[in-house]
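Deliverable D5.2: sample structural annotation.
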Amino acid sequence: MNNTRARARPPTAPSREQHELRLGFLLHDTARLRRSAHDAVLRPAGFTTAQASLMRHLAREDGQTQSALAEALELGKVALGETVDRLEAAGYIERRACPLDRRAKRIHLTRAGRAALDGLLDIAVALNADIYAGLSTAELDTATRVLDAVKQNLLRMTRGRT
């Protein structure tokens, strides 16, 4: 009777393809979980993620058309229209006639909308502190650079498909 032990093979390192697949799943799950967490912290303040995103976008570039906002936020025109309607009813944004094309409306933040953005920023800062807890500045920098490179690759791939 031979009592020699079966030789254990050393574990093999995951292939590049396995790393890429795993990263894809992590990106998808992380984005979904972040959206859920963001929605949960915004809800008590009376906002949705879509509303907060629209307002942040207007803070960077006020006075856009609904079409431009829908494209920038990757929302359908109907979904964006409902979001604009709700924010306008709450007094955070207003539609104004475009001086160059009276048929077009431009969306602007109101004074109340700008004030609400300060509160939304505080919420985002607190949420990010929890999300990125335990990560060093160097790790955040590396993650940012990697995700930005992935984003640029995706943008190159998707240009011209629409």
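Annotation notes: The chain has a mean pLDDT of 91. Strands lie at 64-65, 93-97, 105-109.
The annotation will be released with the project's public dataset once the embargo ends.
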